[in-house]
Design goal:
176 residues, alpha+beta, Pectate Lyase C-like, 23% helix
């Protein structure tokens, strides 16, 4: 849920406090959860471990930013610019990334699939299928019986789409 539109001056204060927190000299972790950040720029900012969970990041400029370990779960990152940013360990679980730019991002290897009624986001080490987040090495061993308890129809879905999902996982994992 979006709380309210955040002002540029408030963003500056939060980023400054985050910088102190990262340096271990007080401050606080940046928390943009549930905030409307549309059109903001975080170009070259160090936002390692920042919280953007559920935020509206539509069109946000994250280019060349350090977002390692940041949480963007359930956020709207439609048309956001992540080019050249550090996305090592960044959580995009259930985020909308339609039209986002990941060119040149570090560990920005990602594929998005939407078929059979489920949304799949494949990253270099983990994949989300619907609301389930799993390690890729585990998913590559899965058979239809392993997803039977997800929800009704999961067995049939994995029987139909499992090989395609595994092929995409292997492809994303191979890209270095």
């Amino acid at each position: 849920m979006i709380i309210d539109k955040i002002s540029r001056s408030e963003v500056k204060v939060i980023v400054a406090e985050h910088k102190k927190w990262l340096a271990g000299v007080g401050g606080s972790r940046a928390d943009f959860s549930g905030r409307d950040l549309q059109g903001m720029s975080f170009y070259e900012k160090n936002l390692r471990e920042a919280n953007f969970c559920g935020a509206d990041c539509c069109g946000v400029d994250f280019s060349s930013a350090n977002l390692s370990g940041a949480t963007l779960g359930s956020s709207n990152c439609t048309h956001a610019d992540f080019s050249g940013s550090d996305l090592t360990g960044t959580d995009f679980h259930q985020a909308t990334i339609t039209g986002a730019d990941f060119n040149g991002a570090v560990d920005g290897r990602m594929a998005r699939l939407d078929f059979g009624g489920w949304s799949i986001c494949v990253r270099s080490s983990q994949t989300s299928i619907g609301c389930h987040l799993e390690k890729n090495e585990d998913l590559l061993r899965w058979e239809p019986k392993d997803v039977d308890d997800f929800c009704m129809g999961a067995f049939s879905w994995w029987t139909t789409h499992g090989d395609a999902v595994k092929a995409v996982i292997r492809s994303v994992m191979e890209k270095n």
